[in-house]
Amino acid sequence: KQNLVLDEAGQKLRQTMGEGFYRTEKLTLKRLSEEIDFPEYKTRALINETLGYRNFNDYINQLRIAEACEKLVQEPDTPILNIALDVGYRTLSSFNRAFKDILDQTPTAYRQTATSTNNNA
Asked: Residue 1: what pLDDT?
């Protein structure tokens, strides 16, 4: 029964995040656990142990940066600040920091590399 509850919570978490809930400004673990109707400490365990993220912020950043990567390539004329705001960051500096932490390069460098690769294909 315990695993079934975890599976259901995991599915609800994936569905909620798949719908873009991670873009919510000032998103907290408490707010997320309320949204998926699962206790906060269990939501934390689900993210850390079941999904394997270091912590809640790592999880949210990974989702936001993954979407940002798509947008950087698909929308080459959209300013990076707009993309940062669209995926849920409040400032360009926090977006740049998270991006560099995860991908080891700046959003600008990522966009240049990705678009030049696409143009040569």
From this structure: 62
Question: Which residue, among 53, 9, 52, has the nearest Cα to 32 in the 3D structure?
Answer: 9
For residue 40, give the 3-state DSSP assignment.
helix
pLDDT, the chain, mean: 92
Three-point CA angle 24, 45, 65, nearest 5°: 40
Residue 121 has pLDDT above 60, yes or no: no
What's the 3-state SS for 89-107? CCCHHHHHHHHHHHHCCCH
Distances (CA, A) of 108 to 30, 34, 47, 57: 33, 36, 30, 23
Question: 10 Å Cβ neighbour count for 13?
Answer: 22
Question: Hey, what long-range contacts does 74-80 have (CB within 8 A, 24 or more apart)?
Answer: 76/111, 76/115, 80/107, 80/108, 80/111
Cβ atoms of residues 66 and 39 within 8 Å: no
Please report which confidence band the pLDDT of residue 19 belongs to, taking 50, 70 and 90 as the band edges: very high
Mean per-residue pLDDT, 78-97 = 96
